[in-house]
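Hi V.,

Quick status before I head out on leave. The structure for the redesign project is tokenized and pasted below; the design run finished overnight.
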């Protein structure tokens, strides 16, 4: 979720109007709602000092607003929190270990669930030794090109097979 979307999410969560939040961070009453609408829509990008002011006004961490840096533990946590907000990711415990699951998988659109299924299949192929780590990484780093190419190849093969069956 982009920074503007995160601002809107937390503003709505706090029951604030754009004007009220804008005034809390120092914009004039005349321009507060316009400025906040620009940030929320992505037409403007808040600088770090404004992110800090917004986070104070919203009573959240600045990391919750910024596009998270997943190379840090805190950034990764805020990415997971955003996924929780948007997609219903939940944390529970399995065998005394933290476990991430989807609270309501049925709410996902089918293409997203299919993407997870594609990922799970590739990871299983790696675990079983069917593919190498390099092949798995190639799949991940070119996603979704490889699954799309495989689906196209499967459809093409089915058409060829269908045509051969019709000829016979």
């Amino acid at each position: 979720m982009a920074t503007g979307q995160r601002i809107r999410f937390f503003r709505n969560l706090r029951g604030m109007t754009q004007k009220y939040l804008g005034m809390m961070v120092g914009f004039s009453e005349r321009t507060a709602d316009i400025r906040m609408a620009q940030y929320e829509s992505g037409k403007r990008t808040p600088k770090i000092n404004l992110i800090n002011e917004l986070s104070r006004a919203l009573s959240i961490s600045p990391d919750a607003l910024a596009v998270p840096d997943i190379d840090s533990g805190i950034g990764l946590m805020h990415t997971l929190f955003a996924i929780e907000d948007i997609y219903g990711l939940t944390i529970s415990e399995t065998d005394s270990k933290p476990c991430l699951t989807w609270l309501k998988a049925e709410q996902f659109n089918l293409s997203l669930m299919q993407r997870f299924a594609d990922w799970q299949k590739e990871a299983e192929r790696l675990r079983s030794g069917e593919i190498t780590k390099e092949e798995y990484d190639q799949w991940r780093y070119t996603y979704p090109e490889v699954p799309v190419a495989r689906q196209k190849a499967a459809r093409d093969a089915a058409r060829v097979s269908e045509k051969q069956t019709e000829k016979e």
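Above is the designed sequence. The beta strands are 89-94, 97-102.

G. will cover questions while I'm gone.

Best,
W.
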